[in-house]
Amino acid sequence: MSHTVVARLQDALGASVTTDPDALEATRDDRSGWRSASLPIAVVLATSVDEVQAVMRIAHATGTPVVPRGAGTGLAGGAIASPGAIVLDLSRMNRVLEISDADELAVVEPGVLNGDLNDLLAARGLWFAPDPASRAISSIGGNIATNAGGLLCAKYGVTREAVLGLAVVLADGRLLRTGHRTVKGVTGYDLTALLTGSEGTLGVIVEATVRLRPIMPGATVTVAGVFADVDGAAAASAAVTAARLRPAVLELIDAAGLARVAAHLGDDELAGTPLATLAPGETFLLAQTDGAGAADEAAAIAARFAAAGGRVSTSTDDATGDRLLDIRRAMHPALAASGNVLIEDVAVPRSRLPEMFREIEQIGARHGIEIPTLAHAGDGNLHPNFVYTGDEVPPHIWQAADEMFRAAVALGGTLTGEHGVGVLKRRWLADELGDDSFELQRGIKALFDPTGILNPGVMFEASAPAPR
Amino acid sequence: MSHTVVARLQDALGASVTTDPDALEATRDDRSGWRSASLPIAVVLATSVDEVQAVMRIAHATGTPVVPRGAGTGLAGGAIASPGAIVLDLSRMNRVLEISDADELAVVEPGVLNGDLNDLLAARGLWFAPDPASRAISSIGGNIATNAGGLLCAKYGVTREAVLGLAVVLADGRLLRTGHRTVKGVTGYDLTALLTGSEGTLGVIVEATVRLRPIMPGATVTVAGVFADVDGAAAASAAVTAARLRPAVLELIDAAGLARVAAHLGDDELAGTPLATLAPGETFLLAQTDGAGAADEAAAIAARFAAAGGRVSTSTDDATGDRLLDIRRAMHPALAASGNVLIEDVAVPRSRLPEMFREIEQIGARHGIEIPTLAHAGDGNLHPNFVYTGDEVPPHIWQAADEMFRAAVALGGTLTGEHGVGVLKRRWLADELGDDSFELQRGIKALFDPTGILNPGVMFEASAPAPR
């Protein structure tokens, strides 16, 4: 059967289809630490909407599962090989089809990297705001499929707010267009928003019309604070938001996380920064302000940091700001360098951030593990990280993650703020949603994908037992 | 049958049910100019979630249509009596349940008026950004049901972007909760966004958790420009956006609209404003800037207005700014005072605004009618207005509206930017969406409302012929 499917793909798509063992093998993981037990039957490196439609028609006709995959940088196992599946790789569909200065929008293929689009836009004074920490390596299709968050969401919104319209290939190969080239538009239900964050389970994104913004005028100002412990950093963060200050970036790294980053980067990388001389237990809070009031806002933030006991430094040159932000962005690579990492992604109302840090500490203590954590403090999104060795997540880490999820939901939060459910967190989906919502969500899935061929096992448990 | 239904409602809900002829009569229209041919069988003035659930359980058991209704200020006939229906009036559910300063959110019942919430918030330095021109009289439940737009959307987003979570009573009476108290959250499909703008066809909104913003610091600066014709105003608007300026408000009123507003308000209201001495054919463009860079941005805007030939005045006092904005907000009352009004609500990419104005002029000329128009120029949303006398929209006006819709879509735009489809625009829904999207949207409707009792005839044509 799979032989026939591959033959049909090859007939229709020729050289875009590969069954090369290395290519198949490469689709078994992403950046989540999860590793699929299965290989796909083939990888299709699609180069056009027509090719994507051809794949879906063959999959539909043969009942073959399809896993849409972009840059492979997902953190929840949402785009990895599943049993008997075709992996539909969209990374070669990476053309920027249009940039409209007048309408402040771009039309892109899904494989365009977030950072590449922003490089193109900078010369025009424009900017695509969604800013996952992975922007240099993650694709816009994947950003949309996960409704990616990032560092700027409290001020500039999540990916959903930057998506005006989509072209999506449906399970049976039809091409659906949603949305508009306008900021406003309320004709019918908002399928653009429904598809954003749907993790490849409702359709394959083949084109996106995204909203751009003018680059903020003036310099970005960076305020860095080093605190004796996580309570100090959390208190400073709370004081900033209580004062109605709205920095573009407000990132917190706890002591365990900071120690790992510092060790990973080494003394040379940290020389001259406030992190050059860290005492044990110290934590880091990084704010950036932008726009016309950036300097005043930064001064007000620095005062709150100092009042909360921080060692504070403020800089107005971009190089220093970028350097400090790069230290923050090095958190995931630093952890990945020391083992496999299960990244939690809980979000809580930001007022509950100090409580959530205490919960994390207690969970770590109960299980005898260190849980290096960073937080997008402005929006209450935390990434507690579990580092482990070996191919599989050990049971006690799953247990700790389970306690983490339940603590976040009990505080009014959610299982996943920005990474998505994927295969990693599907076990908790129904728990968070409740029966009525879960049933409606299954209904939406069945409406778009009646035969269940789109990314089975992602978000919802597959009907057949999924591999671990 | 309807007798039995009313008896069951009265048994369950007592004094919340009315069949008073005046109360029934009052639900036959909204602010759209559309008038239902039917009376409802009863009006329920619900005061609690329990009561809403009780209504839906009875409706579900008896197959009775239900029309959810808020403040009755809709502009598309989305909440007016339909044949044999219960009108479920939510205007008494108007409590603000919670305001969280720390998390910058409010939890409200659906009947809370937009303006009332903002009055409450002002003392705390907070603000609910969705700003329909009707904010003094429209309810937040209705704002969410229509995904209302308004004057500030280019800078501050549409209503969807301010809704974090909902409580919704489903067609069979179950209570569904969606979303979070956090800015981020990607667990499952985005039902909050799907329900926002669903016009009462998928469920009854009984509670909303909405996102608040800090009030922008500093004074608002207002720039008013009077231009010899609509081309001048449109050129000035295009020059502002091309310069990457981002005013909070950018409103354009054409000559016919301006003449109506001026006549309606009278000389006293206009005295001392730039509109006190209008030459025939003159048009109005109003910008407001806010935040730390407001003064600089206003100066840059004033320069563009002047360069495009405008008579320009700039003011930094709130009283003048409010007065000028009130003149803009008087547009709809001014038209309503002179007859029934069919309000179009097309949106086009803002670069196509001058073309759309030309289309409007040509359509008016073809049909021998004046079409007073205003535009949210910053986001390309236009309200061409058709004033008529008599109970029904005359055929030539429907014909002109049809041409308007097709022109907007041909320019890359949409049938409705912010008012919703309602009964007024359902005839065009499938034309804009196309067959595949229309079919999926019908599927979503059937999933949430399998027996079709929720607001039948709104958005989709009712299976039985709907009254005109």
UniProtKB/TrEMBL annotation, chains A, B:
Source taxon at top rank: Bacteria
Keywords, sorted A to Z: FAD, Flavoprotein, Oxidoreductase
Domain FAD-binding PCMH-type: from-to ranges: 36-215
A Pfam family this chain is assigned to: FAD_binding_4
InterPro entries named among the record's database cross-references: FAD-bd_oxidored_4_C (IPR004113), FAD-bd_PCMH (IPR016166), FAD-bd_PCMH-like_sf (IPR036318), FAD-bd_PCMH_sub2 (IPR016169), FAD-linked_Oxase-like_C (IPR016164), FAD-linked_OxidoTrans_Type4 (IPR051914), Oxid_FAD_bind_N (IPR006094), Vanillyl_alc_oxidase_C-sub2 (IPR016171)
Gene3D superfamilies to which the protein is assigned, alphabetical: 3.30.465.10, 3.30.70.2740, Vanillyl-alcohol Oxidase, Chain A, domain 4
Swiss-Prot/TrEMBL cofactor(s): FAD
UniProt protein name: FAD-linked oxidase C-terminal domain-containing protein
